[in-house]
């Protein structure tokens, strides 16, 4: 496994050395040569700022204006990269795609201005606007970037255009949530299915219902082999990015795996073709399954590219709708991209990233969180922004959860819970894991331990290639932890060992037995017991609260003692062992 604590010490000791070097120019030589070779006359162009996550020529002015009359500004920003200790694979994915995009556009005749910023994006754009004249930008997806650019957009120096990458509008969201908040994804999904006509037969959903979710809950035993993801051959541009990250971002955790890093538009095509052919036929069936034999099963792994717009949501949805595959798989995929993905971004935007909630404004973190990196590394993550600073996000915690994230979420501190250890290992190796591992292992265990929703969010933001504020915050603060209460989900997504055992093969490799002594089951009951008041009026929780009422006092005492034991051992970075709980069981 990469990125062990020992390895980290090595990174940390070189960090100081690299900090000085980072102040010098970032390595761009092979990339600059390539841009210089393709350079065209930039005079008389209309200029567009293309943020790091809008890398597509199929949306916005790049798709409908003459490339030889357009100029684009691309900003590489070590300041942004250093705001949090992001996984190196994530930095590599963003930078490699940005540089390939620059070259691809230059080859089309677009004038490309590539700059390296050392602070908020607006500080890089201001002098360029003075030099080149007013610029345009498609409305940024990230709240952080919108806030950064606000002084420029407000005075018209940067003209904001509609972001053409989204599939739905704020009106769709509003029309579907007339009674809300709280907001509900199923109502939004029905609305956008009807409005878009996707998977509709006149005004009726194809197959007679909007969701086939109940058919998509099989566990996987290997009878249909899970496909191996494609392997990419890095070119000189990608290798240069990886070397640059190794040198200038040496303190960042994780390691770079170039073979799984799609960087060019052709790589994106390869990944998507693989997903269409090998993943989609079984996508629905095994959507909720988890396995030691395959970290991704039939999930497409496209989220990193989708969020950078290297693949377009409209294109992937259309391609899947056109496939000859079971309707449950087709609909399952459409629900994720047209439904969940769009729903979460509307909820994020409607609440300014959960800074403004219907029942008030939660506390905001003063600085970006490090997701527990400092405790893990023994160092302090110092953001290198000079002067100007944005907040570190909202800190809602509807259930009052405030505990620190256990070190087991970082490399080198196995928890002894095979499910958690396996997924954490996958995440640090791949900077990715699929939906159910995120929800029912990582978030579930953190929620059961009353971990601070903000700290868990920051951890996800740091560790995953596809995490940006608009998508990671709703998924963790709302879905994963119930941090904003019932605002976006009817109930918390928590479970004991029975669910994990049913949907995975993790338990077979665990020192604990899911039917006898698995601490996760006790944690589940202890969680319900601690928060029973908060759930008392929730009709979706009535059944489990009735079961809780039938649980004996002695069992509840054991549940509480297991919670204390797990919190204390994992809080110190230790490993849980079955023999340690014998004392609790005997008491
Ligand atoms: C706790 C938690 C944190 C998450 N953090 C992120 C994140 O930072 N970035 C991110 O893109 N997704 C996030 N998700 C959603 C989802 O887990 C990932 O989009 C998905 O696992 C990516 O893998 P994939 O491309 O193989 O997805 P597939 O299973 O193949 O699904 C196809 C696509 O559907 C979209 N999708 C599915 N569910 C969601 C969702 N809930 N929200 C947004 N898009 C969705 C994604 O774009 C995904 O690529 C999170 C989910 C949870 C429960
Ligand atoms: S027995 Fe419990 S801890 Fe072990 S893998 Fe199964 S659910 Fe996870």
Layout of secondary structure:
Blueprint lengths: L4 H19 L5 H9 L8 E4 L11 H4 L5 E7 L1 H4 L6 H20 L3 E6 L4 H12 L2 E4 L4 H12 L3 E4 L8 H7 L8 H12 L3 E2 L2 E2 L30 H13 L16 H19 L19 H6 L4 H9 L5 H24 L22 H5 L40 H13 L4 H14 L4 H11 L5 H12 L16 H7 L15 H12 L1 H4 L6 H9 L2 H19 L10 H5 L1
Parallel strand pairs: 1-2, 1-4, 2-3, 4-5
Antiparallel strand pairs: 6-7
The structure holds flavin-adenine dinucleotide (FAD) and iron/sulfur cluster.
Main sheet attributes: strand count, strand direction, barrel closure: 5 strands, parallel
Strand content: under 5%
Shape: globular
Q: State the helicity in percent bands.
A: 40-55%
Number of DSSP strands? 7
Give the spatial strand order of the biggest sheet. Answer: 3-2-1-4-5
Small molecules bound: flavin-adenine dinucleotide, iron/sulfur cluster
From the N-terminal CA to the C-terminal CA, the straight-line distance is 38 Å
Concise synopsis of the structure shown:
48% of the residues lie in helices and 5% in strands.
Description:
By secondary structure, this protein is mostly helical. It contains 25 helices and 7 strands. It has helices spanning 5-23, 29-37, 61-64, 78-81, 88-107, 121-132, 143-154, 170-176, 185-196, 236-248, 265-283, 303-308, 313-321, 327-350, 373-377, 418-430, 435-448, 453-463, 469-480, 497-503, 519-530, 532-535, 542-550, 553-571, 582-586, and strands spanning 46-49, 70-76, 111-116, 135-138, 158-161, 200-201, 204-205. The chain has a 5-stranded parallel beta sheet, sandwiched between helices. Strands 6-7 form a two-stranded antiparallel ribbon. Helix 7 links the parallel strand 4 (135-138) and strand 5. The longest helix is centred in the middle third of the chain and has 24 residues, at 327-350. It is globular. The two termini are 38 Å apart. Residues 1-24 have low confidence and may be disordered. The structure holds flavin-adenine dinucleotide (FAD) and iron/sulfur cluster (SF4). Flavin-adenine dinucleotide is lined by residues 299-303, 306-307, 333, 336-337, 340-341, 344, 434-435, 438-439, 443, 460, 464, 466-467, 471-472, 475-476, 479-480.
